[in-house]
Design goal:
about 110 residues; alpha+beta; YaeB-like fold; 5-stranded mixed sheet; two-stranded antiparallel sheet; 2 helices; about 20% helix
């Protein structure tokens, strides 16, 4: 059965900023998730078993959520792991004490001005 693909606003921005070669690989990966939303190489996040991450190329990961009931794969973010704290895909963005941009930082953590 084919799943519907929904690309969230943050992921859409992430996608547009990818280098052309990585954007092509991202397109192929996202299309493949419509057929197989939980491939063997995808890792489920402990904080939410419906949220997964999967490697894209060598520098990027795709974070996505699978809704089995709605048969939908929602692409949440496309990110470089060195800039990501694995708290949750569902929290807002912020900067840490060093000013480094962090995706999904804790709500009680430092905030952007």
């Amino acid at each position: 059965m084919t799943y519907r693909i929904d690309i969230g606003p943050e992921a859409r921005v992430d996608f547009e900023t990818l280098p052309a070669e990585d954007r092509l690989q991202a397109t192929e990966l996202i299309r493949a998730l419509a057929v197989t939303p939980c491939p063997l190489r995808a890792k489920s996040l402990c904080s939410d078993p419906a949220v997964f991450r999967i490697w894209l190329a060598t520098l990027w990961r795709v974070g996505y959520q699978v809704d089995e009931q709605a048969k939908c794969v929602r692409i949440l973010r496309i990110y470089r792991p060195v800039l990501y704290r694995y708290d949750s895909f569902l929290h807002g963005d912020s900067q840490d004490a060093t000013g480094e941009f962090r995706i999904g930082a804790r709500r009680d953590g430092p905030r952007s001005p």
